[in-house]
Amino acid sequence: MMELTDNLQRILETIVEVATCDYALLAVRSGDEFTVNAALNLPDEVISASFSIDPASELGSLILKHQLYQCEHKKPVRLDVGEDILPEINWVAAPVSLGQRVIGLIIFGREDGFSENEIALIKALGGHIAPSVEKSILNVDATYYLQRFALLNDLASLASSGMELSEVIVRGEQLLERAFGANSIKVLIYDAPSDVFIEYSESNGKPTATRIERGLSFERSVMEIGQVLRIGEVAKLSRYVSAGKDVAAKMVVPMNFRGKAVGVVSLESYQIGAFSDQDEKFITVVASQMASIVVSIRLNTEMRRRANDMLRVNEIVQEILGLAGDKSIAEYTAHLMAQKFDYEMILVMLLDQELEELVAEGVAGSHVADVPMGFRFAKNLGIPGEVIRYGESVILLDAGETASYVPIPGWSPGSGIWVPLRDGGQVFGVVSVEYQKKDLVDTNDLVVLEAIAGILSSVLTNTRQYEQLQGNVRQLEAVRATALDIGTNLDLEILLKRVVNRVRTLVDAHGAELGIVDETGEVVQVLVSENPWQDYTGYRFPFMSGVTGRVAATGEPLAIADFNAWEGRGDSVFRAPFSTVAGVPLKLMGEVIGTLVVQDDRPTRAFSKEDIYTLDLLAPQLAIFIRNARLYQELEERMNAQRLAEERLVRSAKLAAVGEMAAAVAHELNNPLTTVTGFTELILESLEEESPEHEDMSLVLSEAQRSREVVRRLLDFSRQSEILRVDTDLNEMITMVLQLTHHLAQTSNIKVRMELWEDIPLIRADRNQIQQVILNLVHNSIQAMPDGGELVVRSLLENRENQSWLGIRVEDTGVGIDEENLEKIFEPFFTTKPSGEGTGLGLSVSYSIISEHGGYIEVKSRVKEGSVFTIWLPAESRIELED
Predict the structure, then answer these.
(1) Does 510 lie in the same domain as 445?
(2) Rounded to 5 degrees, what are φ and ψ at 398?
(3) Can you give the pTM of this predicted structure?
(4) Would you say 109 and 23 are in contact if contact means Cβ atoms under 8 Å apart?
(5) Is 735 in the same domain as 872?
(6) 3-class secondary structure for 609-634?
(7) What's residue 570's pLDDT?
(8) What residues have CB less than 8 Å from 216, skipping those under 6 apart?
(9) Residue 421 and residue 376 share a domain
């Protein structure tokens, strides 16, 4: 070292003769430090003093760029021998450079400042003396470095040998042992993810790796502080230093690469003070080179691994492209991942439609026998829940030590990675890879899994978008099919029910209702309601009340995501059973004639713009169909009314003709029957009751009297008797008739039920005739139930054909009437009773009485199920008669 100092001192004195100054320093660079080897007009302790230059400082930045550094009235550097050595004057520092390499630093100082010419001269001197400085350094250290050059050469060759890291480490240790004469040299590589040292050794001719999880506190300290620790006599510090048996000296050097330690080199010797300063400096270089080799091999290995991984990822991508269906894609992707990467367990989990649970649609791996396909996780549970919540990947080297980890039943937690599946900013699933042992995943696995997840997300998203497009096409086709289906029926009631039913299916709604604007033009009345919670049929919504009223009033579609929180809802006191509502107006020639509203009670369901568009597309066609059905209904009602009127007219004509014929027949039969009856009675008086002739004549008298009764009825039927009309309470008439027939019904095992309309208005009618009609119908019903049954008599009040009508309905569960006989039952002398049990005049007389009161009789009957007879009388007849 003295020879180097003398040489550099002569160089410094020579250049000072050219560059005038008061003080001067010449320092040689060694790694990140500079050592002063020559000085002018400064204390002797400056020689061999060291200083460091921060690359980020102004001095460091300029020197590395081969530029001059100037400072005024302050120290240019800080020496490790004291801060007061250098005076605070004007200083200029110039790099001593060979090409791009800075090998030293020359510093000039004086009280006065330096001129531009002097500064230019100093810069030139830095480059001019560099060869001489370099030569002096080489001459002094030539012997030492020549001895180590072969070692460095051998180490460099290891980097390009293509060997694995374990082989390079073992070979490097052997080279270092020969070069330094150490009894033991170990190269320990630090594994940051697991925080352990890995020691490589040779066993049976093959390198093996051993993970050292405990101990080596001395080596850890060296790595943490990043500086060499050299102990000349271990015995003095045995309490603090871990060393092998008989070890006298030890030196541990950090393997630094770009300021970061990747491991340590540990040298041990049985001789005290075996390692010199020069050894320390050189082993630092060797350790740095070893660090470069380790990083380089790691990078190459990682690059090869990543290249292979990306090749396998690409193979997976090629396989899953073109697949359809979330479940199929997830299942096949998991299978391919297990096949290509030999993962122990892969789960591809997708959020369900309600976005409440993660469903394992894809399950594969070498240890998944106990994990069922379709296994479900709550979306906020465990590590998958964190990934869903925060949208970030998670990697765990020891899952069992993580509080938020929730193990799958039958699975032993070890290490794993969880990666989100995204559609834009929305996370819709998680891909996870797990092992049952710790520390089996690393950042490279994370990169691979994120690459697969990215491609899988795109495939699933594109598939979903395609399926959505197909769904839109199907939806439009469904709208067309719905319109065609609905348009085939002109029955208004059936049409409206079909509309509501088809609309629910069309937009996947749990509820739907259709309302029509009433004649006031200010209220919407719900005609059809279909949902699982409540029937809203008959509800009336004023304009601007609720969604129905708002849509009708504005004539614009409306969708409410949270109906219970909507300020426009009609009733804000009670909570609605549904959560989301949408409605569209039904318009005809610009006028709103009704509304179509859909509801749903699923918390995550909200009607989309596509749903509104679908309803809006269907609405004009529905409006036309409803108008056509209304017109058809009106036409049908008018035709039915006309047909009923014609039937009544024909029936009245028939009754009149029969009445005239009956009067003539009755007069012709009445006189002979009177004669027969009289003479028969005289004969019976003269005969003994025990005589055979008395029984025969009694039969003659009985038949003659029955014939006279038939004649009397014919006369009653034919006479146009005067009607005595008074205010009549139909409920009172019904009650009286049922009291009269109570005993007959009870003995016939018939249950009688009476349902009367409260506050039914009075009607102007002939009480006796109305009572006769009711009694006739009740008798007929009792006779139709020979084995017993149920008889129900009701009073009614209805608006029929834009008129108020009072009704009396007699309903039985008897034998019923054949369909071919229904048209004949009101004709005189027609009866279905056995011969001798009926005249066939009861219903004819009843119909005649009701017709004279301005009413009519309806009948419905089914064989073996019963009959329903309804008398309809106009409620306005009382007013008309009074007028």
Answers:
(1) no
(2) -140, 85
(3) 0.41
(4) yes
(5) yes
(6) HHHHHHHHHHHHHHHHHHHHHHHHHH
(7) 62
(8) 188, 197, 242
(9) yes
